[in-house]
Amino acid sequence: IPTITPAWLAARTTLDEETGCMAWDLACANETDPVATVNCKRVIVRRALWQQAHPEQTLGARRVHVTCDEPLCVAHLVALTKSQRQKAGRCCANSLRTNPRPTVIRAFLS
């Protein structure tokens, strides 16, 4: 897992002080999946951040989603299976703010 530092992340995001969202400023895959090269390896940023925050867990079939209304946010993350995501419905951000508990990356990197 590539290590992402607070300085590295801050240089590539725009912080919204009101919401705590860190909107990704660089390249995205599929228009909403932030990607970057870290230590000569191309990574999906949300996945790398979630794995860094939860080294004892494996993602397996889960994907990392945002729990806020900012589609390019890399600060408010939750890992879900496809069925969990479908149960959350189209309004994923509203239903996931509290359950399951999201990882707030800013707190982890501080």
Describe this protein's structure.
This protein is of the alpha+beta class. It is built from five helices and eight strands; from the N terminus they run αβββββαββααβα. Strands 3-4-5 form a three-stranded antiparallel sheet. A three-stranded antiparallel sheet has the order 6-7-8. It is globular and about 35 Å long. The mean pLDDT is 83.
Order of secondary-structure elements: HEEEEEHEEHHEH
Q: Report low-confidence residues grouped into runs of 5 or more.
A: none
* Order of strands in the sheet with most strands: 3-4-5
Q: Which word captures the global form?
A: globular
Q: Report helical residue fraction.
A: 25-40%
Which features does this protein show?
globular; alpha+beta; three-stranded antiparallel beta sheet; single chain; 26% strand; 110 residues
Summarize the structure.
The chain is of the alpha+beta class and 110 residues long. 28% of the residues lie in helices and 26% in strands. The protein has helices at residues 6-10, 45-53, 82-88, 92-96, 105-109; strands at 13-15, 22-24, 28-29, 33-38, 41-44, 63-66, 76-80, 103-104.
